Amino acid sequence: MPEPKVKILVIEDEPEIRRFIRVSLTNNGYEALEATKGEEGVKMAASSKPEVVILDLGLPDMDGTEVARKLREWSEVPIIVLSARDGETDKVNLLAIGADDYLTKPFGVPELLARIKVALRHASRANKQEEPVFIAGNIKVDLSTRIVTVDGNDVHLTPNEYNLLHILVKNAGKLVPQQQLLRDVWGPGYAKEGHYLRVYMGQLRRKLEADPANPKYLLTEPGLGYRFKME
Amino acid sequence: MPAKTNTNAEEKAERQIPWLDYVKSLTVVICCTVLSMSLGSSLHKRNLFMIYLLGIVLVSTTWSRGAAIFACILSLILYDFFFEPPTFTFGLDINEHYVTLVATLVVAVLISSMASRLRRSAQKALFREQKERAINELNRAMTNTRTPHALAEAAGAQMQRILGCRAVVLLCRTDAPELLPNKDVSEMELSHAVNALTQVNVSATADTGSGRFVVLRSAGRILGVLAVFPDASHRLDAKMKELIREFADQLSFGIERAFSLEAAERAKLQVEGMKLRNSLLSSVSHDLRTPLASIMGAATSILCDEAHELPPENKELVQSIRDEADRLNKFLKNLLDMTRIESGAVQLKKEWQSLEESVGVALNRLRQQLKGFRVVTQLPEDLPLALYDEQLIDQVLFNLLDNAAKYAPAGSKITIWAKAAADGITLGVSNHGCSLAPGAEARMFDKFYRGDASAGATYGAGLGLTICRGIMQAHMGQVWAERFDDDGISICFMLPTTGEPPKIDLESEGDPPGAETAAPTEQMENVT
User: Fold this and answer.
1) What CATH number has the domain spanning A6-125?
2) For residue A105, what are the contacts with CB-CB under 8 A and spacing of at least 6?
3) Which of A198, A201, A205 to mutate to test the interface with B (most CBs of B within 10 A)?
4) Contact A110/B507, CB-based, under 8 Å?
5) How confident is the model over A33-49, as a mean pLDDT?
6) A163 touches chain B (CB under 8 A)
7) Centroid of chain to Cα A163
8) Does ipTM surpass 0.90 in this model?
9) Inter-chain residue contact A213 with B416, CB threshold 8 Å
10) What is the pTM of this model?
11) Architecture of domain A133-228
12) Torsional class of B97: left (φ above 0), alpha (ψ -120 to 50), beta (otherwise)
């Protein structure tokens, strides 16, 4: 008996965009559910319990932000937002509401699939025990002993640097909003002190990256936050 | 000079056929004599002179003073000859009649001078009225026009009608005291007008060659020249010249107004055009993004489908669909940015940012394009934070690196370097393969400049560097190009220092940043 397919709900009003998302999802072994309006999407999410929601910001009946807020009232389902807008304020708002990731149109299918994978991994890991050792390329982080090595050599990190890295590694592949990092590492009073992140991320990159000005792992999402990139 | 011509002309007008007045006064006196003769029997001869006196008054009020005096003397002689006994002899006793003679003369002269004064002021009033009517007609002709050129044409035609000779209004360029060519004047006439413009001083007039040239001015600015070409048959008299002067004043006023109206109109159109262009472009670019997303998505979806591997040729075609969609998207972004910068709608969201981080963002966004180049970063470890709009400076870096990837030969080195100084941070992107013509360093920041087309550099829309310049200007910074070696070029920008970066609470343990080395470190990434 075959394993039931992972259900992904696509809330998008443009038929051509829905079409290619559906085809790529099906090709990659997912089951695609489609909704053309926000209202319909929220209902479908409640009835068919998808494991990931792909949400377009510019829906005809209600704003994408509103849809995300309604979903978050009762569900922890990962939300990946699609946006054709340039402004970053609505993206920041969406992340604050609890959206997990975003893609700016136009985007390639590989990016979309990568985001879905990351979202699914984190959703499933939420119930399980954390892996004690994290490895990405030449970087190894032992979460139990707090020892970080690059190419086998120990790297000395300050407590804040380590905490920063810890959060990013725990959310590996996922966008972590600036506010969350500032709040969790420095405390709630630092939510607007973005320059702390610039300085500390710079230090962290100098210790972990081969070229801190051309990082491979510790990536910046301008205006939004940081992402530890998995290869 | 103008005053002298004035009196000459008046005298000439008075002397116009002078003997005619004398003939007329002779006729009047003869008529008086005939009347006196017919009434002679019924009237006392002393009263007959009153008839002559009426004649003299008539002559004095109507014709010149000389004619009046002539009528006086003639009347006395004829009266004496026909009616003073002994009749038909000239036996006038001067002693007896001198009172009559003097009184009559005084009456004649007084009346004639009063009459001529009256006549003259009536003439003046008439001329004033004519002049006002002419000016009104000119103004009416001018108010119906909208542009300075139409005004000049209408005014010229109107003056031609009023003056009865050829009149042309030559306009000056708005940016330089230089006359615009006009099809109504010959080359020689135009050169005379230009002479008038260069020779005469304020409010002056010049009679050169075939015409009269009056320079039109307003608030010190030269607006043009009024040229009047009188026919050979009638020369310009003083009144005509005065009229021309008046016309010139009205014209200056009218042209000045037309110019400022035109400028206001142009400014209004510009603002409206800009608004329209902006809303059009932003909606177009938003609407274009959706089909672009479909194209990109469909192409990448085919490429991702591992179950149905495409034949190599078809795979290449699908790849080119994807790449071209990506390119189109970049053009769109540039267009949108350009409109935003040009409309002045850019609102800077300045925060303390790290240039190292921004370089990383740009390199990451361009990872695909920069494959096959040796990318070298030389940023000092102690590069301070700078106050800037992250999104915009990321775009500058993106455009500079995108440019380098377009022009540098495959496999060559692209260097990103930075230097911090007291007045600001300078960052540059250097690459080889520059085929710029000498002196193109400044022009390359102009809109739609695309380098030497023969070098195969027809890749972009030529907006990237213009956008960079706009963004740097908004940051009070600069962007410029420098050559090195034979074919090397660096595009650099400078962000001026705008105060101290905010302090951060450093931790007690750990390595202070930048303690080990302060010198630029060279790191290389070899991707092929």
Assistant:
1) 3.40.50.2300
2) A17, A82, A83, A84, B289, B290, B292, B293
3) A198
4) no
5) 93
6) no
7) 19
8) no
9) yes
10) 0.61
11) Orthogonal Bundle (1.10)
12) alpha
